[in-house]
Amino acid sequence: MNVKKWFHHHEHDNVQEGAITPIHYTNPYLIGLLLGFVLLATFVIMGRGMGASGVLSTVVAVTVEKVSPASVEGNNFYMGYLGDGESNPLKNWLMFEVIGIVIGGFISGAIAGRNKLVIEKGPRITNKKRLLFAFIGGSLMGFGAKMARGCTSGQGLTGGALLSVGGWAFMIAVFAGAYAFAYFVRRQWT
Amino acid sequence: MTSPFFKFGYFNDEVSLIVAFILGLAFGFLFERGGFGSGRMLAAQFYFTDMRVFKVMFTAITTAMIGLFYLSWIGFLDLSLVYFGETFLLPQVIGGLILGIGFVVGGYCPGTSSVAIATGKIDAIVYAFGGLFGIFVFGEAFPYITEFFYSTPMGQITLPELFGIDHGIILLAVIFLAIAGFTAADWGEKFMASKKEGK
């Protein structure tokens, strides 16, 4: 299976092969400031913060229930994402928020000319290996986020701004884990 | 006190979904502008080659934190009505370490992967499927790790409450920490740039 060949037309893409070119990326502190204001607006309007990994959990819980209803019974983790049985569990606040995130990201990318099919990686790794790493990393993220009761959005941004003890402990652990392991996957990125 | 608006019943559940969508649009737009749609940009912070993501994230946290404190202080926002999860220290630290390793191996976290998928990153799609698989594994393992999942409970607790220090002092400490972090980030970037040139 020659995965690289499928995406052959992106071989000379500078995002993939060369230096990271932050064309049209705005000043990080300005973006951070605006992001902080949107997060603040979320607290003021909704009385809650933002999140992301909860959507994936709902998708998993709904799928497992469809395939094997018996295995969901008595499993408090799945049940927590299936609601009261009255309404569709997929119709929830986080789901609508994440749909907004996807469309908002697409709009920004379209304006900046950054929307294109590409495999993001450093120059020293094959596409096939990169995709394998992406799957393994995603699996670790999924497991870790559920263990921690949230991800970089729910625990990090939201819990961090609210000075939650768990949020800060989580965030410090995320950076500790990432920096400690970065050396072992350096060939993927640098 | 007039906010949080939703908690005071200014609009219903159906409207809250529209609000969620609009706020999501803003988050997604700014995430993409911040460079969160690129796995290389996200990973660069772990090698000190480009600290952009780190700067965006901590500026956002600090800004929202100061805003919350101010709006609560002038009596506009009832902070006790703003929801955040309870702390279970040990599982959250272990979960954070695992997620951190997943971050540098996979290149994304859940929120950033949705922006990356929106802008066409194929590896982000694979990453999201990995995420579903990881959550499935957690769900199946849940009956066996329930005890650990609920260990070291501390309740809904904030840093000022934990240390018994005034909210404002913690605020100043976090601001100081952020500035120190940004300075260190700039220094790291310069160091890596000079190292690269020296090669």
Tell me what the structure shows.
- The complex is a heterodimer of chains A (190) and B (199).
- Chain A has a domain at 122-190.
- Chain A is 65% helix and 0% strand.
- Chain A has helices spanning 3-6, 14-17, 28-46, 53-67, 69-72, 76-79, 93-112, 127-147, 152-161, 165-182, 186-189.
- Chain B starts with 12 loop residues before the first helix and ends with a helix.
- The model of chain B has no long low-confidence stretch (mean pLDDT 94).
- With 199 residues, chain B is an all-alpha fold.
- Chain B has a two-stranded antiparallel sheet.
- In chain B, helix 3 (52-73) packs antiparallel against helix 8 and helix 5 runs antiparallel to helix 6 (122-149).
- The interface between A and B is large, with 127 and 129 residues.
Uncertain spans of chain B = none
- Number of spatially distinct domains of chain B: 1
Helix coverage percent of residues of chain A?
A: 55-70%
Number of strands of chain B: 2
Structural shape of chain A: globular
Amino- and carboxy-terminal Cα gap of chain A: 25 Å
How many strands, what sense, and barrel or not for the largest sheet of chain A?
none
Key attributes of the depicted protein:
heterodimer, A: 190 residues, mainly alpha, 11 helices, globular, disordered N terminus, B: 199 residues, two-stranded antiparallel ribbon
Give the SSE map.
The complex is a heterodimer of chains A (190) and B (199).
Chain A: H1 3-6, H2 14-17, H3 28-46, H4 53-67, H5 69-72, H6 76-79, H7 93-112, H8 127-147, H9 152-161, H10 165-182, H11 186-189
Chain B: H1 13-33, H2 39-44, H3 52-73, E1 87-88, H4 89-106, H5 110-118, H6 122-149, E2 153-155, H7 159-163, H8 167-198
Antiparallel strand pairs in B: 1-2
Question: Could you write a compact summary of the structure shown?
Answer:
Chain A is built from eleven helices and no strands. Chain A has a domain at 122-190.
